[in-house]
Amino acid sequence: MIDFSCDYNCGCAPEILAALTAANESQHATYGLDVISARAKEKIRAAVENPDADVYFLVGGTQTNATVLSAILRPWEGVVSAASGHIAVHESGAVEATGHKVLTVAADEYGRIEPETLRDYLRGFYADETFPHMVQPGAVYLSHPTEYGGLYSAAALREIRAICDEYALQLFVDGARLAYALASPETDVTLRLLGEVCDVFYIGGTKCGALLGEAVVFRGAQKHFFTAHKQRGALLAKGYLLGLQFDALFTDGLYFRLGKQGTDCALALREGLRAMGVVFCPESGSNQQFPVLTPGQLQKLQGKIGYEIWQRLPDGSAVIRLCASWRTTGADVDAVLDALRV
Amino acid sequence: MIDFSCDYNCGCAPEILAALTAANESQHATYGLDVISARAKEKIRAAVENPDADVYFLVGGTQTNATVLSAILRPWEGVVSAASGHIAVHESGAVEATGHKVLTVAADEYGRIEPETLRDYLRGFYADETFPHMVQPGAVYLSHPTEYGGLYSAAALREIRAICDEYALQLFVDGARLAYALASPETDVTLRLLGEVCDVFYIGGTKCGALLGEAVVFRGAQKHFFTAHKQRGALLAKGYLLGLQFDALFTDGLYFRLGKQGTDCALALREGLRAMGVVFCPESGSNQQFPVLTPGQLQKLQGKIGYEIWQRLPDGSAVIRLCASWRTTGADVDAVLDALRV
Amino acid sequence: MIDFSCDYNCGCAPEILAALTAANESQHATYGLDVISARAKEKIRAAVENPDADVYFLVGGTQTNATVLSAILRPWEGVVSAASGHIAVHESGAVEATGHKVLTVAADEYGRIEPETLRDYLRGFYADETFPHMVQPGAVYLSHPTEYGGLYSAAALREIRAICDEYALQLFVDGARLAYALASPETDVTLRLLGEVCDVFYIGGTKCGALLGEAVVFRGAQKHFFTAHKQRGALLAKGYLLGLQFDALFTDGLYFRLGKQGTDCALALREGLRAMGVVFCPESGSNQQFPVLTPGQLQKLQGKIGYEIWQRLPDGSAVIRLCASWRTTGADVDAVLDALRV
Amino acid sequence: MIDFSCDYNCGCAPEILAALTAANESQHATYGLDVISARAKEKIRAAVENPDADVYFLVGGTQTNATVLSAILRPWEGVVSAASGHIAVHESGAVEATGHKVLTVAADEYGRIEPETLRDYLRGFYADETFPHMVQPGAVYLSHPTEYGGLYSAAALREIRAICDEYALQLFVDGARLAYALASPETDVTLRLLGEVCDVFYIGGTKCGALLGEAVVFRGAQKHFFTAHKQRGALLAKGYLLGLQFDALFTDGLYFRLGKQGTDCALALREGLRAMGVVFCPESGSNQQFPVLTPGQLQKLQGKIGYEIWQRLPDGSAVIRLCASWRTTGADVDAVLDALRV
């Protein structure tokens, strides 16, 4: 069975496994203070085109979101998120466990916060004279791509940045699947842009070819984030394990190639499905595809293609999630299309 | 240079690297619900001789300590720890960040809480009629071996358990370096005993031959620990990575062999140093040795042997820490002794 | 100007001021361990008809909500609240600051959680197989009357209790304005019923004739709530100040008389407004009235009657809030009606 | 029986009761935004001689300590306190419940932190190269007078301020019994000095003649403390109740007179006891006295004078606490001395 159900259910790119194997015998400074991690950080600063960027390697997405947000917010502040945002739904209240409310606003069909939605929320918030009795918005959380494969445009991000400036908010972008967004022809958002508009964002490793790990990039130096992430259990004793993965990912464009493989496959899949008249809900430009399949089509995939039911519809059809990843091949894509064509 | 400065500055045992490599291409259920993790848990339940034990794999020590303690304590409770305990000193306030005070008691010279110290503390606590205005002791935290290489005896652990029963406290043992304690001829504490006397303890992987990972063992089923550790960012997306390491560690006695290698080397080193008249502060029966060396002796190690200064003494001598590990060889031990003999 | 804008902007009932004055010269045991507090607790246990009830006096509503909820929830649990619930909107994230998410469900037009809404939420929650990755519902928060003057029926509360039993949830009722609900002919909820269906509820003092204070009533003994509320800064050094107010309130039915005065006036006001053709949004059976007034009517109140704009409507009319209280008189009510009749 | 056991077991000064009674019928803006509170704040700014001071009225000491500290610290920071400090011992972990560790240093016999002790602690902290793994000192907590009646000198406070500046720490002084310190001939610390050297301190009301209430004084404007203290349940709905008490206390020097009464009585008591050869442990210059009495002396007080056993000594004697307060009279003092003279 060819598995499209998930983009983080197997190991890592061969280059990373090779690096891990090569480094296994050597001794490395602990807690991320090793030379490999230093080199990886340097490469990321170069990729972001910001020599002042402060880079940390954490282990996973929920950990990263809660650790970063708790470090940048003050106690009376909350973080504005799409109601469908990962921190608002599927992180077991990790942000609230650090004392901060997630302030939800409606997402568009792609799971994005539209700039106008954000502006309206903020205007409404401060127009209500009881606002000092409410949690103060202190940061905005976006995911790019979103949980629904949605992609921001550079213009939208710049507008959101402007709104953040107007209302003194920090901007944090969750890039758990960032490689796939960077490879999409349907958005002009670059690493450089993220480094420019975000106070902090992260470059996802776990879902983009690494065994595990996320690279947090702050726009400027953070005097105390070392202690802050140690406190949240997010400082890895053998930090070199994370550093070497990002070192490999940012050598010879591996991160971008891995992302391209996943997104190219997903878009080929989208093209093939479209040709069969399949519609999408929503229509994603990155590695996750959400086709609406009929009961007959679902039946045809049974036992051949692994997928995830996203939403069952009253008529027996369903929105399913098909995740391409850095490991997906053209043959895998053909297998899906072939199964449906039978 | 032969490095005795640290026992977590290199990779993993070859068996683990092989397992990791072998599993890299396959797809695995996420979040630790994979078959390899299930198998590893089964092996640990067998090793602990408790079929009801509930096992979870977390990433690192600070994360484990804070996650477990926050899950077992109620808000008004704190955890009793030796003043030199890792949670009291070197975890950046991770326990306090979850809202709980670390209640410190004096340790003996080995970093252990003596049963009588614990009893006196508890008697004194409840004898003070203002006790309802103070943080209530809710659990006891021990490390075995301690931060100073100290080892509890089975009798001491049983006595501490009895005190915990008397005062309705939970007992949690931090086993970050447990393999080395299990291999020591100087303690009769076994995995089975830990499973019996502890409400929860953990079997350290990071410092005992794994790349990373700690196996948390609860005496009975925990309905909500899955959510609890997700909330603290301690649930690994690719949980199979941790499961396969513990699967390897608990296959053919690997965990015990790795521990034995480290502890045997440490005790050989101790023997050799003793023969030279070196004293220890304290004298450890596990993988960490704390010899007191003269300035001349320190000089002799310079550039040949990596070590950590533990405490500088007024006369220029110093207590140093020499960590043997699963990777240390007899030749490494000889190198230290030879360097000093010159 | 006759002020209907708020029901907590003046002092206390004369009986309370007299008690306070009488007790001012005496010495009282501290921290609520005084004889007056003991007597007040006994009276409340009698009023609730539960000799096992455990009663504590806290200072204010937000403090009470956060203190009680943090004491009854486990870290991975959240509290289900109407989206319009006070804890979800106007308490500055006090509940989240203790680490718990407020899980919001839609309220009916009266600000109540309908039993079916609660049941649907819980069914949907557990039907989603990703639920272990989400905050677990651990308690239900209701306010009676609600923030919109809404009143539960005994049948609704019993049904909610049954749902709580089915899903192992605790039920907490915020009774900040409870006196006014108890006096309403439009609900059959009694103190006894609250003591029966709630794990814990509170009898509001601040808005019901006391200077300040809320009486928290647990169905059974709480071994550690003394420490829990001390920890949240909610234990008053001079606890007798709160005890004596509730002692007075529960002597000769004062609490009920004060509530009746407020609710009777509010209902008279409602009757008078209705007779003028005014509609309500919503129509409340307790001390707060939410009439929809035209611009002309709003103009007529100007400078004569204090009120609060609740919601401005596009046509220039507005929903306003008129709060009657234990201090409101029939003459005050007439003043409003007269002003509008001019 | 004349009660010297506690200084917060009775009501308030007559001037305050009169003000409370006078204001009981009027309507007041809520949440401390009333004119009486504004006037009280103005008087406090004048007393502190700092027109920029930002003043808030909270309800009690534990609440104030935890609310202020959580508002000024960042998550990775702790507060340095004497090991005998109230926040370290008798507040049920209120500070830890907000996520912050209390970093204890040894107190002198008076419960004070000596400047040299603070400097040594900080030097040692930063000299330890593992310091980024530890909670960072972010503020210093002092109480004046201390829990043992100890008094800082202006010179000591200035030196502590200089150390705070050197190490980028904030200085917070707990003035729960401040009136008694301000009245002591044995310290030159003034309100003005506190306003100058502290980032924030509080002027205690509860123990100094008010019914309840503490006035928090920040050196400069706090944009978000309103929300911060609402979040901690520390914003009183009827804020005028606190404002009017401080308005009375800072009218015609009442606060200073009340303090003087307590301290004068305490010093007279000290003088009388000294004349009998009684020693003190420690010898306090403020309203609390800690004489060491023989079993015979203790016997003589029995049934006549209320006191608190502070520490039982092996020979049957005891250190007792005798609290004078604003209500104590010369006759009360004589009663103690007479009882012992019999």
List the helices and strands and how they pair.
The structure is a homotetramer of 342-residue chains.
Chain A: E1 2-3, H1 14-23, H2 35-48, E2 54-58, H3 61-72, E3 77-82, H4 86-89, H5 94-97, E4 102-105, H6 115-127, E5 136-143, H7 154-166, E6 170-174, H8 178-182, H9 191-197, E7 200-204, E8 214-218, H10 225-231, H11 240-249, H12 254-275, E9 279-280, E10 288-289, E11 291-293, H13 295-301, E12 305-306, E13 308-312, E14 318-323, H14 330-341
Parallel strand pairs in A: 1-12, 3-4, 3-5, 5-6, 6-7
Antiparallel strand pairs in A: 2-8, 7-8, 9-11, 10-14, 11-14, 13-14
Helix pairs in contact in A: 1-11, 2-11, 12-14
Notes on the protein architecture:
The structure is a homotetramer of 342-residue chains. In chain A, α12 packs parallel to α14. The two termini of chain A are 16 Å apart. The mean pLDDT of chain A is 97. Chain A folds into two domains: 93 residues, Aspartate Aminotransferase, domain 1, CATH 3.90.1150; 239 residues, Type I PLP-dependent aspartate aminotransferase-like (Major domain) (Aspartate Aminotransferase, domain 2, 3-Layer(aba) Sandwich). In chain A, strands 2-8-7-6-5-3-4 form a seven-stranded mixed beta sheet, sandwiched between helices. In chain A, strands 9, 10, 11, 13 and 14 form a five-stranded antiparallel beta sheet that branches. The first copy, chain A, has a two-stranded parallel sheet with strand order 1-12. In chain A, β5, α7 and β6 form a beta-alpha-beta unit. Chain A is of the alpha/beta class and 342 residues long. Helix content of chain A is 41%, strand content 18%. Chains in contact: A-B, A-C, A-D, B-C, B-D, C-D.
